[in-house]
C-alpha cells in the first residue's frame, strides 16, 4: 500500500472513529459510555456540568440517558469513573506517527520554535503557549511552571480571574482620575468667571481709561485660561479606560468558553496589555490637590487716577481652594449621596437689576381691600396676576410700572398658567366649591369654561402634551386613609395630581409617596410649598419636613429621581433654559442649579430691596419674578 493511501486511510479512521462527537477533535483521554460511544474526558465533564441539575445526561450520539451513580458525586469524579477506551488510545498512538495529523485539528496551535510540533503545554511563569520540546529545553527555570493543557484549566481560570480583578482596579483608577480632574476643572471655571466679572466691573469704573483696561484685562483673562487645561488629560485617560474595558470584555468572553486553548490564548496577551496600560496611567502624573484662581486687585488702581497708567491692575495667583470661599451642598441622586463645592455663598451672590414693580394698594376708597398676589404668568407683552384677596385676575403691561389693562372677577381664584400653544390660560379656584377656569385673553379677559373639581387645586404648572401638575391640599375628612405618623393638628395634607385641561385626573401622587419618612425626617403638615415642571415631564417640588427643607424631582412613573438639600429653607422654585431656580428664605437669595450634565450649583443671585419669603418664583424671558402673597410683584433682569 502506498504512503498516500496509508495517510488517507489514517485520516479516514481518525475523522470517522477517533474524533470526539462534541468538540470534533481527536479524542483526548477517551472515555467509553455504556452505549459504546467514546467522548473526551474534558468534554464529558462539561456535558455533565450543563445537565447536572437533572442528575443525568444524554449521549450526544444516540441520545441514550445515563444517570449518576449517586447525588453527591462531582462532575469530574463521574466523568473519570467511566472506563478508558484503550482501543481508541492504541489507534491514536498508531496514527500519531505523523504529527501533521494533530495539526489538522481546528484548534491545534503549532509551535513557533518547533514548527513540526503541536503546542500542548502552557508556562504560567512566562505566560506562553509552548510544545513539549520547549517545556523540556527552554522552560526549566525556577520561575517557569509548565502544565499540560489537560491539567491547567482550573489554574488558567484562576489566573484569568486575578487578571480581571487587576484590570477592574486599573479601570477604577482611571475613572477616578477623570472624576477628580472634572471636579478641579469646575472650580477653575468658577474662579475664571469670578475674575471675568471683576474685570468687567473695573472696565466700568475706569471708563476714561478703557483702552488701557481692555488691553490689561485681556492679558489677565489669557493668563487665567492658560493656567490648566484638563481636556487632553481627560482624552488620554478615557482612551486608556476604553482599552482596559476592551481587554476586560475579552476576558469575560473567554471565561465563558469551554475550550481551554481559547482561554490560554487570551491569558497569554494579558501581561503585555496590563503593563502597557499601567505605564500609560502612571505617565499622566496628575495631582490630588484642587486649585483655585484668585485675582487680587490693586486699590491704588481704583483710587488714584493720575497714577493709573503706572499701576498694575492685579496679580493672578494659583492657590489651593480655600473652603472659606466655598459652600458645600449635598444631593441624593440614584440613591447615592453626592457633595458639591462651589462659590455660591450668599455673601458672594451677584445682585440682579430691578426692572419693574407692580403695586396694587387701596387708594381713594376706604373699603377697598389691599391686593394679595398669589400667582402670575407672563403672556405676550403682558403680566397676568392673581389677586387672591379681591378674587380677581388682573392684567398689566410688562414694561410699564403699574400700567393696568383689564381684570375679571373669579371667586376663590389662586394660581394661573398658560395653555400650550394657545392664547388661553388656566386658573385654579380652591374656594368653597373648588373649580378650574379656562380664560380667553383675546381683547379682554373672559371665561371660556368652568369645571367643578373634587379636590382643592392651588398651585398649577404646565407639563408637556397638554397636561398640568397641580398641588392639592386636602382635609382629613376627605382622605380615605389616615397615616398614623402624620400630625393632623392643622387638618391639611398635600399631594400632587396630573390633570388635563378639563380637570380630569390622569395620575395621582399621594402625600405618602411624596413625603414619606426619609433621612430628612417625618413629613410636615402641608409639606408641598411650590413646584415647577421640566420639559421632559418631570416635576420639581419644594418640600419642608419637621427637620429639613429640600427640593425633589419626581417623574410621572411615580419615582423620586433626586433629592437636593440646600442647607436652607426652600421656597419658590422655577425652571428656565436648562436651570432650576430656588428661593432660599433664610439667606434671602436665589440659588441656581444646572440640570444639564448633572445637578450642579452654578450661581447665586441677591434681589436688591426684597425682604419677602419668595413663596412663588417665575423665570421667563430673562426676567425673574417674585410673588410672595403681598400687595406687590417685583421683577428683576437676569444678566
UniProtKB/TrEMBL annotation:
<dbReference type="InterPro" id="IPR001841">
    <property type="entry name" value="Znf_RING"/>
</dbReference>
<keyword id="KW-0862">Zinc</keyword>
<dbReference type="InterPro" id="IPR027370">
    <property type="entry name" value="Znf-RING_euk"/>
</dbReference>
<dbReference type="Pfam" id="PF13445">
    <property type="entry name" value="zf-RING_UBOX"/>
</dbReference>
<dbReference type="InterPro" id="IPR013083">
    <property type="entry name" value="Znf_RING/FYVE/PHD"/>
</dbReference>
<dbReference type="InterPro" id="IPR047153">
    <property type="entry name" value="TRIM45/56/19-like"/>
</dbReference>
<feature type="domain" description="RING-type">
    <location>
        <begin position="20"/>
        <end position="63"/>
    </location>
</feature>
<dbReference type="InterPro" id="IPR017907">
    <property type="entry name" value="Znf_RING_CS"/>
</dbReference>
<keyword id="KW-0863">Zinc-finger</keyword>
<dbReference type="GO" id="GO:0008270">
    <property type="term" value="F:zinc ion binding"/>
</dbReference>
<dbReference type="InterPro" id="IPR000315">
    <property type="entry name" value="Znf_B-box"/>
</dbReference>
<keyword id="KW-0479">Metal-binding</keyword>
<feature type="domain" description="B box-type">
    <location>
        <begin position="106"/>
        <end position="140"/>
    </location>
</feature>
<protein>
    <submittedName>
        <fullName>TRIM2_3</fullName>
    </submittedName>
</protein>
